[in-house]
Write a structure and sequence with these properties.
Layout (H helix, E strand, L loop, with lengths): L15 H22 L5 H12 L6 H13 L5 H14 L1 H10 L5 H4 L3 H8 L12 H12 L1 H4 L13 H6 L9 H11 L7 H7 L9 H13 L4 H13 L2 H8 L5 H18 L9 H11 L5 H12 L1 H10 L3 H16 L1 H4 L1 H4 L2 H6 L1 H22 L3 H10 L4 E3 L6 E2 L2 E2 L9 H18 L19 H10 L2 E4 L7 E3 L3 H18 L4
Antiparallel strand pairs: 1-4, 2-3, 4-5
Length: about 525
């Protein structure tokens, strides 16, 4: 039976030699896992780390601003990152971008020069209903033409046999539908430079609608304002945008395009934020684990170590899938043998209790790695060995975990559980599944009694395989590990218990120091 080592260890002071003898098996497991993670590059592990960083909820608005503004201003210039920021800014704050464009409207002359499609898209939306219904570009053209008719009316080109006078068009504004827009705007480009800096044209830009005509042009336009012109207002509105936007959204859109140097810079900035607060770190939620790692080890941990530790601590089930889906049979066998040795050998598995507490605290990074490897080994062994209700209940009893059978059953389809956490691995996904189960349980309460005690007739004449699904695969338990608050299915138990073990070990080791 697998031991979870949940009892508080009796710390020794003179056992470091014995402990050192047990570390090689952990080192072998670490190297094997790392080979699997990097077998096709490190992109998956990198994505996992970016996802974990984006889940940090304690970064304040001013810290967000400080972090991303420093990233944009760092050398060499990060044009690709700035371009992505501007894309997000256009999507979420088009009006603010439009206000800046309106102050630089004269520069948009070249946006339309020799671009007939752009001219027609922006200026041709005249309406039969007149001025109030014209599109923004068309309206600016009509208004400027009336106000400045003495200098520009002759530049208007009409599709009919003769032109229209201002007086006639003023009484019949739908005549603008007969305007040859392309030729007229081309005349303005050549002969009426005043239009491009006019209030009428600037007003048409303020809501940012024009950005949709050619996104790339306007991204390049703003990049020049930022880095060539050092236009203060662009930097100010971006700084405010970083304060207003959520940290999660910013990270999801930006971290994945950073190179490792810049990603490490982000980690170091977050470490600075956390250490300045000098608040105690908690162990009860998985989102705190990365905080502990960054806060305690950020200045000594390499990117490779971050990738590995994050995979072990935050993405254990995804790592398990990567191992199981891999093509290297030899590596799978090695993983199986090493995890079996770690979880069943008393000498190896209890090695952490043999190391003195002071030594553990002085080697925070190593300790977290050892705990991570042991925790993931438990996840692997539990997934491999515990497949029935009986085996799980024996595990609970042998490790002094209180449990109650729940009347909420997992949803079974094609003889397997539909595992909600396959969609989103983490405590939040489990919470969503729990809420859904609670809604279903009212309708299913009579049917979903303890099927272990039902007769064949009460099982609606299901065949043996269906009975097994209802009796075993769909069984859920309430556990003392979380105060009997969540029904845990067979599919979720390995991850839940391995995380619970890691949390308890960390409490035993660091609760007095942090």
């Amino acid at each position: 039976m697998i031991e979870l080592f949940l009892s508080k260890p009796i710390w020794g002071d003179d056992n470091s030699d014995s402990a050192e003898q047990t570390m090689p098996v952990y080192d072998k497991l670490e190297k094997t896992i790392w080979r699997i993670i990097t077998s096709e590059g490190r992109s998956e592990a990198r994505l996992w780390l970016c996802e974990s960083i984006s889940s940090l909820s304690s970064v304040t608005s001013h810290e967000r601003q400080d972090l991303f503004m420093k990233l944009l201003r760092s050398k060499p210039v990060k044009l690709d990152i700035a371009a992505q920021v501007l894309q997000m800014f256009f999507e979420r704050r088009p009006q603010q971008a439009g206000l800046i464009l309106s102050k630089k409207s004269h520069r948009l002359e070249k946006f339309f020069d020799e671009h007939p499609a752009r001219i027609m898209q922006w200026f041709s939306t005249f309406s039969i209903a007149g001025d109030s219904a014209h599109g923004k570009g068309a309206k600016s053209l009509a208004q400027f033409a009336f106000v400045n008719r003495d200098i520009c009316w002759e530049e208007l080109e009409w599709k009919g046999k003769h032109g229209q006078s201002p007086a006639v068009v003023a009484t019949k504004p739908h005549y603008f539908l007969d305007l040859d827009v392309q030729r007229t705007v081309e005349n303005f480009l050549e002969n009426i430079p005043e239009f491009w800096s006019s209030e009428e044209f600037a007003e048409s830009l303020k809501d940012g609608e024009i950005l949709s005509i050619d996104n790339k042009f306007f991204i390049d336009f703003f990049l020049k304002l930022m880095y060539e012109d050092s236009f203060k207002e662009v930097w100010e509105v971006l700084g405010q945008y970083f304060m207003d936007e959520t940290f999660s959204y910013l990270c999801q859109r930006l971290l994945i395009i950073l190179d490792e140097r810049d990603l490490h810079f982000v980690v170091q900035m977050i470490q600075d934020f956390l250490t300045k607060r000098k608040k105690s770190l908690k162990f009860d939620n998985t989102s705190y684990w990365l905080k502990i790692l960054i806060c305690e080890c950020g200045d000594q941990v390499s990117m490779d170590q971050l990738y590995l530790l994050n995979a072990l601590l935050n993405k254990g089930r995804l790592l398990l899938q990567m191992v199981n889906n891999g093509e290297e049979i030899e590596e799978k066998v090695k993983i199986s043998d090493l995890t079996l040795g770690i979880c069943t050998s008393t000498k190896v598995a209890k090695s952490l209790a043999l190391i003195s507490k002071d030594q553990l605290k002085s080697k925070t990074l190593d300790t977290m790695k050892w705990y991570g490897l042991l925790s993931w080994s438990l996840l692997y062994r539990l997934s491999e060995e515990c497949h029935t209700s009986e085996s799980w209940e024996e595990l609970f009893v042998s490790n002094n975990i209180g449990f109650r059978k729940s009347d909420v059953y997992g949803l079974v389809e094609n003889d397997r559980i539909l595992d909600e956490s396959e969609l989103d691995f983490g405590d939040r996904a489990i919470a969503r599944a729990k809420r859904k189960n609670k809604k279903r349980s009212r309708k299913k309460r009579r049917r979903d009694q303890d099927y272990d005690e039902c007769s064949d007739e009460n099982l609606f004449d299901l065949d043996d395989s269906d009975k097994f699904s209802l009796n075993s695969s769909s069984r859920t338990w309430l556990l003392s590990t979380d105060g009997y608050s969540t029904p845990w299915s067979l599919a979720d138990l390995p991850e839940h218990l391995s995380k619970h073990c890691w949390r308890e070990w960390m409490k035993h080791t660091f609760s007095d120091a942090m």
